[in-house]
Amino acid sequence: MSGQWAGSTRRYELPPDWPELRALVLARDEQRCRWRENGTVCGRSATDVDHIKPGTNHSLTNLQALCRDHHAIKSSREGNAAPRVTRWRPTERHPGLL
Ligand SMILES: [Zn+2]
Fold first, then answer.
1. How far is the CA of 36 from the centre of ligand 1 (A)?
2. Alpha helix (H) residue ranges in the chain
3. Where are the domains of the chain?
4. 76: CA distance to ligand 1 center in Å?
5. How many whole angstroms from 33 Cα to the centroid of ligand 1?
6. What Å distances lie between residue 44 and 68, 79, 81, CA to CA?
7. Which among 25, 28, 64, 80 would be 20 to 30 A from 43, CA to CA?
8. Is the pTM above the cut of 0.85?
9. What is the pLDDT of residues 63-93, one digit of tens each?
């Protein structure tokens, strides 16, 4: 209710070298939007870099260039679809006996 950290949970933190990463991704993707829908790639001029899987994985394989429109669409979908962050934790413990 205080709203003290309401804003910080909304956005994932970006690494200090984000400007560099961002430039790398845009260059790699030739500054074209990589949004794919029905087998067609958007291909418009990309201005944004997006995390394919939302979270804190900032590796180049998890980043893609998007145009502003598609980035907005994706962000709003993620906002609606991800009320809670679940951790990737495969259960490896076995009870031992069946
Ligand atoms: Zn696009």
1. 8
2. 6-10, 18-28, 68-81
3. 13-79
4. 15
5. 5
6. 9, 24, 26
7. 80
8. no
9. 999 999 999 999 898 876 555 555 566 666 6
- Rounded alpha-carbon distances, angstroms, from residue 28 to 2, 34, 63, 96: 42, 11, 10, 48
Average pLDDT value for the chain: 83
Whether the Cβ atoms of residue 22 and residue 49 lie closer than 8 Å to each other: yes
Amino acid at the residue 43: G
Residue 57: which pLDDT band, with cuts at 50, 70 and 90?
Answer: very high
pLDDT at residue 97, as a whole number: 59
Distance 3 CA to ligand 1 centre (A): 33
Residue 69 CA, ligand 1 centroid: distance in Å: 6
- CA nearest neighbour of 28 among 1, 56, 54, 62: 62
